[in-house]
Fold each of these.
Amino acid sequence: MTWQGFLTTFAALYLIMVVRYFMVSGLFYWLLWVRPQEQLTARRLTGIRPDKALILSEIRWSLLSSIIYTIAGAIIVEAWKAGGTALYTDVSDYGWWYVVASLFAYLFVHDTYFYWTHRWMHHPSVFKYLHRVHHESRQPTPWAAFSFHPWVAIIGSIAVPVMTFFVPIHVGALMFMLIIMTVTGVLNHTGYEIMPDGWLRGRGGKLFISAAHHNLHHQHYRCNYGLYFRFWDKLMGTDVMESEYEFLQREPQIV
Ligand SMILES: [Zn+2]
Ligand SMILES: [Zn+2]
């Protein structure tokens, strides 16, 4: 690995990260917050409308955090090129079942790591130094998906890269996981619940986190710390959700 190679990879990845962020966050911001929204207000999670200063702050922190995530990504790519990771490209190496199993294993480990580091960041002695930035968004917008203090971004970008050195994962599965990370990061901060009623009331809503779940974390702080799954919140008694489904009953209204 050379510095020049690393910097080239870094520049290319950062460009992809930023374009990805503006495309996905921008799309959902436009869909949910800019367009006339009579049909959507029933699914709006709070009456708070974030102001322009907050949105600009969310974008600034997200672009800064993306530098950290890009460094983590560039390390993986360069280490892979040098043959130093457990990434592989031939599905037949472990079979299709392993592609699926490894994806879930990565998601579960990432979720576990996120849950416990997130809970730790809510400890009063560390909250103001690390995690306060993310909670400046009392009602987040899609732009808050990566709105973290750089130290939080550093802590958050350790688990997955470390795993790629030890736990084999197909490159396609890892790319798919990055898409899941992006989409869930944006969707959980939209301020609207867009998943269908059937999903929310069914097994999907019981297992997976959605916007309504994470929005409650931004409102109440001391609940719903998870990232993808409700597993750890339920196990540790920090899950708050069931009583909040009444928003599904609301009639569309103009606000
Ligand atoms: Zn959040
Ligand atoms: Zn938090």
Note: Residues 118, 122, 131, 134-135, 217 surround zinc ion (ligand 2) (CB under 6 Å).
Amino acid sequence: MTMFCYQCEQTAKGIGCTKAGVCGKDADTAALQDLLVHAAEGISQYAHRARQLGAVDNEIDVFVIEALFVTVTNVNFDAEQVAQWVTRAAEIKDKAKKLYEGAAGKDAEALTGPAQWQPGGTTGELIAQGQAVTKTNAIERFGPDVAGLQELVLCGLKGTAAYVDHAQIMGVADDGVYAFFHEALDYLAGEPTDVGELTGKALKVGEVNLKAMEMLDTANTGEFGHPEPTEVRVTPVAGKAILISGHDLKDLAELLEQTEGKGINVFTHGEMLPALAYPKLKKHAHLAGNYGGAWQDQRKEFDAFPGAILLTTNCLQKPADSYKGRLFTTGLVRWADVAHIDTGDNGAKDFSPVIEAALAAEGFTADADAETITIGFARNAVMSVADKVIEAVKAGKIRHFFLIGGCDGAKSGRNYYTDLAQLVPDDCVILTLACGKYRFNKLDFGDIGGIPRLLDIGQCNDAHSAVQIAVALAGAFECGVNDLPLSFVLSWYEQKAVCILLSLLHLGIQNIRIGPSLPAFIGPNVLQVLVDTFNLTPISTPQEDLEAMLG
Ligand code: SF4
Ligand code: SF4
């Protein structure tokens, strides 16, 4: 075994990737990412104690968030670059140690565990250090349930870190959230084994993730306005073209400004689709529409796209040679021999290389037949028609709501979500979010008295909007969310889906269905706890599940 990673849904054989990642992550990168998490725990051991003594340092806080995001599935595949993160982590750990020792004075404790780690001098030595802290150690020492719960907490933190990072890039941060990250990583550094305590910590991650998603909502809506129902084109228009994928709206805003008047159309891909509904983004006439579907189709779709492609966050797949030369990454996303756009000293990004690649490429030679879908049903848009929705429920015109969404993925079995959406009766409404929507978002579901039967809430982080909508409905009907005619059917793939699930469980939401398979790190006893406490249920067949949910 040269590596061990079981943090995402496509893990090998549903157990763990042991030679190379199914995602394309090689064993060296996996070891370095494990070491980076280990180093982040060491940093937080000091930062947590320093903070309790009133000493904080924003550079340390931001670094830990970014370091966790680097290790999220489909973000960074570049071993040399992850090694640089590890080297930097050693410097930040020294800084955190000084911060703590300065605050504690003669009372400073000598910390053990990851706090004591010192980096090897070469990349090879760092890789060996990473291999010594892989998850197999935890499984061997603590058994699958405890190790799995530790992984659940860590995965939740990784997903939440992604949202905190997006928000902090846009100037929205929260000291309490940073404090929790240090507290939780310090907790993991102590190798906790109490199942009840670990479960409680996982739910606490869910609570903090709600705050993180709210921060990101504040950042996005504050900068670009509230999403509004918008008909968007999903077929090509003639001309030079750039395709932008990932979740980072700020990158899109900068790209749109820099491409203004250059004769280039910008298309969204994957999780960037919801950007087309934000007033201050869609005002750009050259934001032409969406191209393609979810992340796992990118090798086929990027190959066919006749322009430049920009990946702002996950989910990146191993690029094919056919488009590698016109593919660019930015932010924390990396692939070893793919051009990267860094943030400049002025805090802005210069997308000139992307623009030049788009101008050099052929572009679309003709308009395709126009096809559109409607998006933009985030909390503000839905709340503005809440009276109509409540009236329709009271009149028996809307029988049930289904939230069918989450990550998409490559493995078979995900047609369940298409089949389920198609089977949903005509007097029911489907709410959706994240890239799982591509399983059915181009189908025509019609409307109920003017209310569309398919309401696309937005990106995965817009689960915050979904929660707000559910809470508002519960308020209107003077009941709890669990008493609403509302069923959650989630598809998971990676760590953002994990933190969203933890948020829903923290809110006490029962009867969530999850698929296409359960996380490999959830041990049998932990699963039983989740079933007993929350009635969390693996998906079955669309017919059986629908009958149970409507029953
Ligand atoms: S992220 Fe997923 S596919 Fe990649 S190595 Fe880890 S478990 Fe395997
Ligand atoms: S929703 Fe999940 S799977 Fe989809 S692009 Fe975002 S992180 Fe990746």
Note: The pocket of iron/sulfur cluster (ligand 2) is lined by residues 270-271, 295, 314-315, 407-408, 434-435, 460, 493-494, 496 (CB under 6 Å).
